[in-house]
Design goal:
6 helices, about 150 residues, 5-stranded parallel sheet, about 50% helix, about 15% strand, RpiB, binds D-ribose, globular, alpha/beta, EC 5.3.1.6
């Protein structure tokens, strides 16, 4: 499975920690984020992650900025993306099981690296449950289609 990962200047170190963690677990990782700590604009990287997932270049995406909010908002503007900001593992797991999230976002200024790894693991190990949740996800995507 290929994971696209993107970040702004606030999350360079955490991005590399998560990349190593993913590689150790056998995932292929596509680094679409900045590797410089010079100030940059998170929408650029949210869009890159979103487009990689929406196009099928990657199976899932991880987006990290200071809070996870800005980069998730940008990723969510790409058609087909359901990016969720998760600061703890329970929400991350449920965002897959119920919301079929395809981009996980979190904040490098919010979560430490060990918590971030747990969030990533719970998210990747969870599976979409379908059923009534499929209907609700379809309703969300219908809003996007009407736009
Ligand atoms: C950058 O300072 C910061 O605004 C950004 O990383 C992110 O937290 C925005 O949502």
């Amino acid at each position: 499975m290929k994971i696209a990962i993107g970040n702004d200047h606030s999350a360079v170190e955490l991005k590399h920690i998560i990349m190593e963690h993913l590689k150790e677990k056998g995932y292929e990782v596509l680094n679409l984020g900045t590797d410089s700590e010079e100030s940059c604009d998170y929408p650029v990287y949210g869009e890159k992650v979103g487009r990689a997932v929406a196009s099928g270049q990657a199976d899932l995406g991880i987006a990290i900025c200071g809070t996870g909010v800005g980069i998730s908002l940008a990723a969510n503007k790409v058609k087909g993306i359901r990016a969720c900001v998760c600061s703890e593992p329970y929400t991350a797991k449920l965002s897959r099981m119920h919301n079929n999230s395809n981009v996980l976002a979190f904040g490098a200024r919010v979560v430490g690296s060990e918590l971030a790894k747990m969030i990533v693991d719970e998210w990747l190990n969870a599976e979409f449950e379908g059923g009534r949740h499929q209907r609700r996800v379809d309703m969300i995507m219908e809003i996007e289609r009407k736009e």
